[in-house]
Structure formats: structure tokens, C-alpha cells
Amino acid sequence: MIISPKIRGFICTTAHPEGCAQHVADQIAVVQSRGPIPRGPRRVLVIGSSTGYGLSSRIAAAFGSAAATLGVFFERPGEADRCATAGWYNTAAFEKAAHAVGLYARSLNGDAYSDEVKAAVIAAIKADLGQVDCVVYSLASPRRTHPKTGEVFKSVLKPVGAVYTNKNLNTSTGAVSDISIEPAQGDDIAQTIAVMGGEDWEMWIDALLQAGVLAEGAQTVAYSYIGPEVTWPIYKNGSIGLAKEDLERTQRQLDLTLAPLGGKAWVSVNKALVTQASSAIPVVPLYISLLYKAMKDVGTHEDCIEQMDRLFRERLYSGSPQPDEAGRIRLDDWEMAPSIQAVVAQRWADVNSANLLELADFSGYQTSFLRLFGFGLSGVNYEAETHPDVPIPSLAP
């Protein structure tokens, strides 16, 4: 079948297998161009490994540090007449590339919040690796089923306390208009914290520790975002921001938990980028479009792979993690540079539908969005027939 992008709102319902493979290959090339990561991790578990920062973490560890990697995700395989999800194709391409250079790469597809998947991962570590020395926690899901109670929690992207009105970008049409978002109500905040906070991260580390599969000196890292004041009502001070505060609370607790092993837990605050998760947050796509132009103009723009390579190479395994006053690693340092934020703030005040293409990198936003699903990659013939049912080697029967 010939696969073309079909966009509905902030998601693309199709994905291209060869395009996703090229996207993975491009990321691998970035890491390889920078040479080996000295003293990098050797056995890495990535929870949420199929897209975005999780995928790039797996690529950086494998191709920068020759690490054995075990990836966990929840993706849909393709069929003869239906596309797989992009994360499925990404993982198939990653495993193929890793195996081609002799690297261990195994994947588990299932609900990472469940006790069953945790048990399966522990069994795989015991059978194949013995222990892991790095655990990346990069889950992004709108809902979570609690493994002990069976309760289903659903997250919301809402401000707290009052209606929030600001500019928003329609990423399909390029129209800039005001949007008003009603505040969180009832148990919205508690539900969001249950999904996007730190409880599941802590459950993972506790399970791995109790099973004896965390190596001496093991590090774990979860990802967060802060951003500028213009986004705070919907992010930092909104329901999702309160969940991220819970993530930071968990990091402090995990530091104590890992201390007997000489281990360490981190929260890495990363740059705003086009991901499947960020595309769903009102206001943020307009900010990202303005940010991309400002950073590209001065040559400091990074995508997921550059960020994760920098995390492993210059922070986690450099001997100089450079935490901020709250103990967080700040990979958003280039984004939050005063000179960049001054430009973005001025353009935010001025931007409208008529001058969007002048002030913002809207085409860059759209290109980045399509690349998430394997579209718009150079060297891929999108007019050719392709097979949507691509196997993931380690999941093949």
C-alpha cells in the first residue's frame, strides 16, 4: 500500500515504515558523528522507549556508549492493510540497526504501568543482562490503570484556579487566535498527578531494586519541562506542572532509596520540542514555533537526539552533571537563555496570523511534526508501495 499522512487535530493517524527507519538512522548518525561517550552506561532500561525523548535516549545509549538496551512501550503492530504506530516502526528500525553492529537490543510491548510488564522486564534482565546500570523513565500517556487497585486515572491539561486565555496556533491552518481554557475541577489535579507524577517511576525502581537487578552505582532519570512564564498557566502552574512537582518529590525519595547502592536519581528538564505529547498542549505549539526560529537564527537549536546525547555525554556520565539549585539537570539552558527569551517574548506580543511566517518557524514545526510519523524524510520514496506489517525482531514469534 502507499502510505500518506492523515492528520486529525494534533495527531497523525498513519505512519510510514521506511520514513520512520530513516528518522532513526538520522538520529544514529548524529550520535556516531560525535564519537563514543566516555564512561557511558553499559546496560540500559528505557521505559517509554519508542518515540520522542525515550527513543532518542535509547539511541544515544546504544550508539554513543555501545550499551545493551531493553525498551518498554505500548504500540500497535501493523497489519496487511493497516499501519502500525510510529513507535512500532521506530523500534523495528532501532533493533535492526543495533543488531547489525552487534548490540543487544530487546523490546517488550505492553502496559508499562502494570505489574505484569514489570515482572516480564525483570525476568528479561535476569536472563540476558543480569543487572542494569541506567533506567530512563520517559512515559507519556493520557491515562493509567493503577496496578494494585485497578482504578483508571485520566490526566488533563488545564490551568489551576482561573480560566486561562492566551494566543494559540492552529497547527493545521496556521491561524493564530485566542483560546480560553477552563480551570481544573474536582479531582482533575489528583488524577493528573496519578498519571504523570512520580508514583509509577518509584514503583519501577522499587521493583527493580527488590529483584536485585540494579547494579552498583545505577542512575535513573525522568524527564520534565518548565518553560517561560507565558506557558506557566497551562504548564508549570497548571495540572501537568503539579504532576511534575510530584515527579521531583519522587526524585528526592529515590535518591535515598538508591543511596545504599551508591546510585542517583535525576530529573532532567529538557527543551521544548515537537513531540506527540507536546503537540496536544494548547499554547505550546505557538511558543515552540517562535522558539525554533529564535534558536535556529543563532545556531543553538537542538532536537531530541542532540538533547539526549548531551544528557549522557556532558551531564550523566561526564562527572559534572551541573544541577541547578533544586538538584535538577537543566538541558533547557540554551532555550532559557535571556537573549533567546527576550526575542521570543517580543515576538509573542507581536505575532498574529498575518505575520506568523515572518516571526515564527511554522514550517519547521510542521516538518518536525510529520517526521515523528516518518513523513518528509529525504531519501524516502513516498510514492512507492510499502508493507505496513513490519516485525520487531525481538518480538517476532
Quick description:
The chain has 397 residues and is of the alpha/beta class. It is built from twelve helices and 13 strands.
Explain what the structure shows.
This protein has one domain: NAD(P)-binding Rossmann-like Domain (Rossmann fold), CATH 3.40.50.720. The model has no long low-confidence stretch (mean pLDDT 96). The chain has a seven-stranded parallel β-sheet, sandwiched between helices. Strands 1-2 form a two-stranded antiparallel ribbon. By secondary structure, it is α/β, with parallel strands linked by helices. The protein has helices at 17-33, 52-65, 86-100, 115-129, 188-196, 199-210, 239-258, 284-298, 304-316, 338-350, 356-359, 362-371; strands at residues 7-8, 11-12, 43-47, 68-73, 105-109, 132-137, 143-145, 152-154, 164-169, 176-181, 214-224, 264-269, 329-330. Helix 2 (52-65) packs across helix 9 (304-316) and helix 6 (199-210) runs parallel beside helix 7.
What is the gyration radius calculated from CA atoms? Answer: 20 Å
Mean pLDDT: 96
Distance between the termini: 24 Å
Instruction: Indicate the proportion of strand residues.
Output: 15-25%
CATH architecture: 3-Layer(aba) Sandwich
How many domains make up the 3D coordinates?
1
Helix content: 25-40%
> Strands of the largest sheet, in order across it?
5-4-3-6-11-12-13
CATH class: Alpha Beta
What is the H level of CATH, i.e. the homologous superfamily? Answer: NAD(P)-binding Rossmann-like Domain
- Which structural class do the helices and strands define? alpha/beta
CATH topology: Rossmann fold
Largest sheet: 7 strands, parallel
Spell the H/E element sequence.
EEHEHEHEHEEEEEHHEHEHHEHHH
Name the overall outline: globular
